[in-house]
Amino acid sequence: MAKKSIGPVRREFSPWESPDHPPFIEFRNVTKKFGGIAAVNNLSLKIYEREFFALLGGSGCGKTTLMRMLAGFETPTSGQIFLDGQDLAGIPPFRRPSNMMFQSYALFPHMSVEKNIAFGLRQDKLPASEIDGRVAEMLRLTKLEQFAKRKPHQLSGGQRQRVALARSLAKRPKVLLLDEPLGALDRKLREETQFELMNIQEELEMTFLIVTHDQEEAMTVADRIAVMDSGELVQVATPAEIYEAPNCKFVADFIGDVNLIEASVAEKTEAGTTLRALGTEFTLETSQTTDAGVGDKVWYAIRPEKVRIAQGRREEGAVNQINGLVWDIAYLGDVSIIHSKVGEGDHDTLRATFANVSRMVENPITWDDEVVLSFDRDAGVILTD
Length: 385
Ligand code: ATP
Fold this sequence. Notes:
By secondary structure, this protein is of the alpha+beta class. The chain has helices spanning about 65-70, 115-125, 130-140, 155-170, 185-205, 215-220, 240-245, 250-255; strands at about 25-35, 35-45, 50-55, 80-85, 85, 100, 175-180, 205-210, 225-230, 230-235, 260-270, 270-275, 285, 295-300, 310, 320-330, 335-340, 350-355, 370-375, 380-385. The strands form 4 sheets. A 6-stranded mixed sheet has the order 6-7-8-3-9-10, with helices on both faces. The longest helix has 18 residues, at about 185-205. Bound molecules: adenosine-5'-triphosphate (ATP). Adenosine-5'-triphosphate binds near residues 39, 57, 62 and 63.
């Protein structure tokens, strides 16, 4: 049976679903130790041609080290890295068919934009007409035509970032490595630039590997995301799969906001699993199956936007309804996050997102309101670790 994809996809592109499709980049059992400590620990990963791939994780999880090994700035302690079928061992950075764009941009201050872009091509001794053609193409692609003669100090941060991108792309590397490329930009410019990056990547049909600790950035640009923790991959999947079907508490908690309800398995049937939330009288009817046995402790992960909240009474016969008392409301403009107390313990709260669709509400939900929280049987996922 064809695999049913979860959620929207950015484009019709999923070579990772074909087991015979050769990878473009492959990390095979790669370990990198600094002193006695493994920054990357026996990691295996396949990335495909024309993929926009994001390495995502908290500070110190090893994502930059992984990228630097691909670029040739670090040597693996053990394991192999392949690019387009070639073992990269012993190949210095400047001979690798990859190019890395650094967070600092590292532009030459005394050179104009076009000279910065042409620098690598001149070093490679390309014919002048070829250099001019490529520089013009890069200026167009990064929308920098009108700034060609300016020096970096005459540009804004966003424009400098585009020069660095143009310079990295001019040599037409097989893979572009982006290390926190948008870190210095403000939020609005960051978002715009994310879309530009995606368009450029599609137009050039290149493979992009981005390192970021910004989950929204990874979700926006990437075909697939690898979530890393302590030098290991925790989950590798499409943004929608990572969000809708996290494989553990760490991923559920790292990406977006989530309610993690501690529960025990009460009953398993063909139609799904019944859970008993610990610390409350609440029974959860889910359509999921689980490897956990009856009586085992699990967590039910449910996103706040999947929890409905309403004033009034419970609906007769409907599943997954729980009484709550509103104790905190965070107004975020487009939505409000409403925290309701659903049990006696300090942590027995449930967060629900409430969309503020109209400016005036006759009877808004407010502090100390008695509310009913409810969700569908397929709204969350059962996690065992
Ligand atoms: P950040 O988002 O903060 O850049 P990261 O996920 O990119 O983090 P890495 O830079 O890959 O993390 O570092 C992983 C671990 O390896 C960290 O504990 C770091 O201190 C360590 N490390 C990285 N480079 C070196 C080095 N040259 N010498 C010693 N330890 C290092």
